[in-house]
């Protein structure tokens, strides 16, 4: 099960897992894009749900598990809104928590019953380099493997690039340079690079890797 699989990193993860022989169910809000992904052979089936809606996620997971038990969950769905701290109101914080935190919680809780029945399971959360440093007593935020991409060539980051261009009058190349200035490679990460890391974590060779935050960021500091 790959959440947020309609586009960007999630879509690439679904494609690579399918190519590696996994039976992939793609979950997301955009039914048409998910249907296209299945038609192109990038996933075997799809279910629609908003990860902020726990009941909808539970129903989607049950539907998927009825056909084949879920033993791998890639919790990829996420969102980002750009605003200064002073201009970020409570509603913005709540939206980000609902998607990026509770969306992961809902997905994991819904997938666990199928994994326990096996008993086998792999859970990989797609986070961000913004979440690499964890502390004691915050287990709710750091319980599973997290892949932390730097700025990646996705629709989400394209929105940030457009915002920089509109607010500064700078060209696209300059806007990308601003986002990647802390990346020694000076470029956006590709979704395929993130998906390749996920594929490794799902394989037998990563059995001893757990509770790790893995940066895919070109050496970003």
Primary descriptors:
single chain, 221 residues, alpha/beta, 4-stranded parallel sheet, 3-stranded parallel sheet, 7 helices, 7 strands, 44% helix
How would you concisely characterize the structure shown here?
The chain is an alpha/beta fold and 221 residues long.
Shape: globular
Tally of individual helices: 7
As a percent range, the share of helical residues equals 40-55%
Distance between the termini: 31 Å
Number of strands: 7
H-E string: EHEHEHEHEEHHHE
Unreliable stretches (pLDDT < 50, length at least 5) are 137-141
Strand content: 5-15%
Sheet of most strands? 4 strands, parallel
Class based on secondary structure composition and strand pairing: alpha/beta
- Average pLDDT, rounded to a whole number, is 91
Strand order of the largest sheet: 4-5-6-7
Rg, rounded, reads 17 Å
How would you sum up this structure, described in words?
The chain is of the alpha/beta class. The chain is built from seven helices and seven strands. The protein has helices spanning 8-19, 31-39, 54-67, 90-117, 155-168, 172-179, 191-202; strands at residues 2-3, 25-28, 45-48, 72-75, 122-126, 145-149, 213-216. The strands form two sheets. Strands 4-5-6-7 form a four-stranded parallel β-sheet, sandwiched between helices. Strands 1-2-3 form a three-stranded parallel β-sheet, with helices on both faces. Helix 4 links the parallel strand 4 and strand 5 (122-126). It is globular, with a radius of gyration of 17 Å. The two termini are 31 Å apart. The relative contact order is 0.15. The model is unreliable at 137-141 (pLDDT under 50).
